[in-house]
Write a sequence for this structure.
């Protein structure tokens, strides 16, 4: 098993280097277009989970080699991947963020079962974990979800049926105080985007 892990890490050495560089960035935003609504591309989410798993393997291999400082660095990088999703206002993004937290916690437990970490590294990991415990981030996500849901329910069945059969832009009127959502449709795929008034 160790030889397979070593081969995997060697084959992904460049990816690991980029993961460590990217995770060190304190503030970033993934290039998603929220105007695409339910049809938006979120390929970065699966990549983040794969990256966290790769860092898990790296930390475990480093722990086996008694490289405690480097192993802690892999765990910090995993938490950095989760941090990159902190302000992304999508429920699925926050669920993936929590999944990466879980991978990071498992990685820490595995490493600590093999060797102690330096005190400075433990403080660093504790600080990173505390930063991730902000409930306001999920509240913002739920607010954004409410805006999308409101836009959907403000669309009439007639307009949705029209959208299923037409391949043209559809202007949706709204009687509420919110800005009317705009929709695009093609075949049976329709997408909504909206601006929610505070």
């Amino acid at each position: 098993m160790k030889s397979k892990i070593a081969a995997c890490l060697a084959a992904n050495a460049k990816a690991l280097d980029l993961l460590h560089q990217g995770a060190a960035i304190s503030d970033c935003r993934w290039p998603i277009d929220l105007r695409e609504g339910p049809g938006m591309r979120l390929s970065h989410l699966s990549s983040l989970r794969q990256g966290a798993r790769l860092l898990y393997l790296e930390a475990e291999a480093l722990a086996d080699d008694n490289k405690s400082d480097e192993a802690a660095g892999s765990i910090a990088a995993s938490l950095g991947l989760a941090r990159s999703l902190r302000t992304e206002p999508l429920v699925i993004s926050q669920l993936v963020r929590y999944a990466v937290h879980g991978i990071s916690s498992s990685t820490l437990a595995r490493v600590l079962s093999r060797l102690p970490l330096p005190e400075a590294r433990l403080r660093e990991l504790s600080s990173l974990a505390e930063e991730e415990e902000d409930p306001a981030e999920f509240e913002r996500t739920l607010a954004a979800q409410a805006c999308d849901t409101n836009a959907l329910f403000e669309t009439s069945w007639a307009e949705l049926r029209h959208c299923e059969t037409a391949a043209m832009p559809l202007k949706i009127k709204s009687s509420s105080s919110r800005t009317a959502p705009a929709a695009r449709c093609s075949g049976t795929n329709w997408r909504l985007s909206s601006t929610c008034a505070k």
Observations:
- The chain has eight helices and three strands.
- The longest strand covers residues 182-186.
- The CA atoms of residues 34 and 40 lie 7 Å apart.
